[in-house]
Automatic annotation (TrEMBL):
Name of the protein in question: Glyoxalase
Pfam families in alphabetical order: Glyoxalase
Residues covered by the VOC domain: 6-124
Record-annotated membrane-spanning stretches: none
Organism superkingdom: Bacteria
Length: 130
């Protein structure tokens, strides 16, 4: 019997300019290109163990990435002119441990890359975080 495992790859829009989109992911998020194929104009970035595929013809999507130091990243990126669609905010107090250790809080911030893909940055913090 087959079993579904972890997420292997997420396809995201490359937008009108693959180079601009890849530069954003490299310069803002610190994730470099793992492989690129021209033609047809597609690239892969590794986010942990998950491949992000950037190619034309895919609608803009949403990807959630774990981050440590969300507040500091937001302040630095915003000061550099990176527009956020939502600043860091508490989205869930995980009192029962549904998504991780019980008592942690989950904070998220959202921004878009030049191709219109939404990036959710997620940080889980221990209970003592204000």
């Amino acid at each position: 019997m087959s079993a579904i495992g972890a997420v292997r790859q997420v396809a995201l829009s490359a937008g009108r300019d693959l180079d601009v989109t890849l530069a954003f992911w490299r310069d803002v998020l610190g994730l470099g290109v793992h492989a690129r194929y021209d033609p047809p104009g597609m690239a892969f970035i590794m986010a942990g163990d998950i491949r992000l595929l950037f190619t034309d013809g895919v609608p803009a999507g949403t990807v959630y990435l774990d981050i440590t130091g969300l507040e500091a990243f937001h302040a630095e990126a915003k000061a550099s002119g990176v527009p956020f669609t939502a600043p860091p905010a508490l989205v869930h107090n995980d009192s029962e441990g549904t998504f991780g250790p019980a008592g942690e809080s989950e904070w998220m911030a959202f921004l878009k890359d030049p191709a219109g893909n939404t990036i959710g940055l997620v940080e889980r913090l221990p209970p003592e975080h204000p």
